[in-house]
Amino acid sequence: MSDPAVGSALPTWLSPVVAAASTITVHELTRFMPPDDSDPRRGAVLMVFADREADPTTPDDLAHRGELLLTERAHHMRSHPGQVSFPGGSLDAGETPVEGALREAHEEIGLEPSEVEVFGELPELWLPPSNFAVTPVLGYWRDRGEVRIASPDEVHEIHHVAIAELLDPDNRINVRHPSGWTGPGFLIGPGRDVILWGFTAGIIARLFSYLGWGEDWDRARVRDLPDHMLQGEPRQTDLAPDPAQNTKLEE
């Protein structure tokens, strides 16, 4: 694994993300920062970019060449069942965000840390309801091997999602929670029947916006969360009014 500050041998289609990692601020991703006296619990997620098979004549840019590796939380979990997320979780004592994100990805989906080149981190994001501070770690799956559901108690499905599909206006939605909270979402999966929302959708949507990507989409298109994703949801008063504040990391 190379130094996150280097990234010199990364593919050209990843260049905009590499540049953004050194310039984006927490305010472009969320309205919340950990107060000095909050002493939050800390966690990390691994935002894994990978090459996607494409026609050689396809433009050499992220939208056509790249994909993100996402997981769908097990449907029987007592909280946030079925939620789509980046691999990740709480940090163990003494772990850095990079170490924790790589460890969690290996435990959840068998992703070998040696296959991932970490090239940066996004600013730490704070979840006020649970006093959780989460660092998104950016990685490139350079030596692509195999992934699998290594922890079926946690993971229902692994999704390889093309960046082009996330940018497609037909796959953009607003997601409405029964509390009345509405935020950005994406339709993913072979049948576009899996809803990506909450913390992970918020990071993706705001990063894409910062990079100037995407096209206009119909913001009047609203989907309610399906029943299987509402089991064990926090009370309405526990929900923060921000798309990046609902995450599986609360356990």
TrEMBL record:
Pfam family, one: NUDIX
Residue ranges of domain Nudix hydrolase in the record: 40-188
Superkingdom, natural source: Bacteria
Region annotation Disordered: where it falls in the sequence: 229-251
Enzyme class label: hydrolase
Xref: InterPro entries: CoAse, NUDIX_hydrolase-like_dom_sf, NUDIX_hydrolase_CS, NUDIX_hydrolase_dom, NUDIX_hydrolase_NudL_CS
Gene Ontology molecular functions: 8-oxo-7,8-dihydrodeoxyguanosine triphosphate pyrophosphatase activity
EC numbers for this chain: 3.6.1.55
Record keywords, A-Z: Hydrolase, Magnesium, Manganese, Metal-binding
Transmembrane segments: none
Required cofactor names: Mg(2+); Mn(2+)
Similarity comment: family membership: Belongs to the Nudix hydrolase family. PCD1 subfamily.
Record protein name field: CoA pyrophosphatase
Lineage: Bacteria, Bacillati, Actinomycetota, Actinomycetes, Propionibacteriales
